[in-house]
Please model this.
Amino acid sequence: MNGRGFRQHLYYAALWLVALFFFAPVAWIVLSSFKTREQILAVPPKLIFVPTLANYTDLLSRQGLLLQVFNSIFLSVVAVCVAVVVSFLAAFCFSRFKPKGTDFLMFLLLSIRMLPGPAVILPVYLMYAGFGWKDNHFWLVMFYAMFSIPFSVWILKGFLDGVSVRFDETGLVNGGSWFHVIFRVVMPQVKPGLIAAFIFNMIFVWNEFLFNFIIGGVSTQNIPYALAVGTYSDGGVNWTFIASMTTIYVIPPILFIYFFQKYLLVGMTFGTVRGEV
Amino acid sequence: MAEINIDGVTKRFGTFTAVQDMDIRFADGEVACLLGPSGCGKTTLMRMIAGLEHPTSGRILFGDRDVTALPTHARNVGMVFQYPVMYPTLSVAENIALPLKQDRSLSAAERDLRVAEMLDVLDMREHGGSFIDELDSGNRQKVAVGRAIARRSDIVLFDEPTTNVEVNAKLQLIRAIKTVIQRTRQTIVYVTHDQTEAMTLADRIALMYGGKIIQYDRPDVLYNQPLTEFGGWFLGNPGMNFVPATVANGQISAPILAEPLPAPANLPSQGAIKIGIRPEWIAMHDTPQPGSVEGTLADQTVGIAGRYLTRVSFGDVDVKVKTDGRPPAPIGGRVHLVPRRGRITLYADGNRLA
Model:
């Protein structure tokens, strides 16, 4: 056994420890969803127990559960699709046609993204209330899309800048329209960027509670809304509900990140890893 | 009909004039090379034909069709760029097929046929399924050539396609381009600063300098009878000799002429001119010959195929001479030169007189 091998093992042990530490709460909540209320609150915590599906059957019998799950999926998928399409075209324009004030507009876009939600919640609420847009799927999608666009434009502009203009020119000269150039020639080359933008925004909308609670309503309630409202609905803290609902809630993001992790890494470099032509 | 007619075209970028009031016709089905040093406006002219730049003034016509205001994709031209542009997400065959998909009149079978045919011509059949990472720059550029040609547009433009290709792949690429253009009846405009390439490929060469076309002629005419000193100097390796000469009483005399030449009628009766003669049109001997002049061998270098490039000095005038074998005298020795009479051309103020 040499020193380097030992160090390597130590290194991995430390990584495992950190990973487990951060994963512990997730594991706790997932395990708890298979326990009874007494088992959840038992001190010391019960590690060996007979799993029960009672929490899930309870959950399924709750009113509005399907609506909440549907809303969560619908709002995030539709809003992010709208955002990615708009952002891609906007980023293409910024990258290729460089309209006057591009740099300033890009700065403005990023600063919108930096703005904390609670800072704008009041004006947004007044606007939505005034126009009668509250509790409406379409307008909530529009809001989420608007909130997702700045960041997506930033990611995608980085990727598009990495695709040489020579591809555009080649496409145009070989008889293609701009439509052809944008969607057949350039878009396939920024697919990692599109996927990265999609995932980042998906996670944002999926986790979004504040705006759903304030400018949404009964018909647009999503899972975070359900968690917040359902936790205290029967007096005390409803631990079995929290555990089972959260477990369902975290499955989609975990699957998503598992399957698309390489694109997330690409996205975090903002497309700065570029191919050359 | 795909004759290209450049009608009084000027292109300025800010204060810089890239192309100046140009008039030229590239005939239907011909291969025209735009040849000239960097910055002479040849790429700008080509980009204007493609529609990637728009002329500041003047018109561009394809046959009778005025295309000056048409966008690029409506012009029906193909183009190969300086950099090998191959779509990285598509295979070689898909790259060639992509522009064909624009043409809705083309059936899928016909499209596949054209792609297969193009891969054959380019000698890339076994690469049809390859992706960009598996190809060298020469083969990538071949893909670009195939993609531009397979559409069978009326006009195909090449913008220095061999510049960014490795030396080894370059010859192969030029051969492929030559094969491809010999098979098509497309009008081809080929930009290059490499005269060998231009000589190999062109039906006619347009020699450009400073945003203007100096001469537009067949390669042999351009080489043998350049209209300007610049043309003589730019073509050939090394370029033409320009030996100072004087005209007096209808006679031309110069250090490399054993006896004065009768001056053609259009020459000024008095004054200084230059004699143009290419290094390979001067014979070198170790003994005096009829019509020879004596000079000192000042320098020699070995060239291709056993040819020597030498410099022979006549006092303050140096003349470049190419010899087939080793020069007959050592450096510093005396040699006797005989210029071929019929090859002599005369210049004044940079332009040819006779």
Summary: Residues 167-183 of chain B form the longest helix (17 residues). Chain B touches chain A at residues 50-52, 71-73, 76-79, 81, 83-85, 87-90, 98-99, 102-103, 144, 147-148, 151, 153, 157 (CB under 8 Å). Chain B has a mean pLDDT of 88.
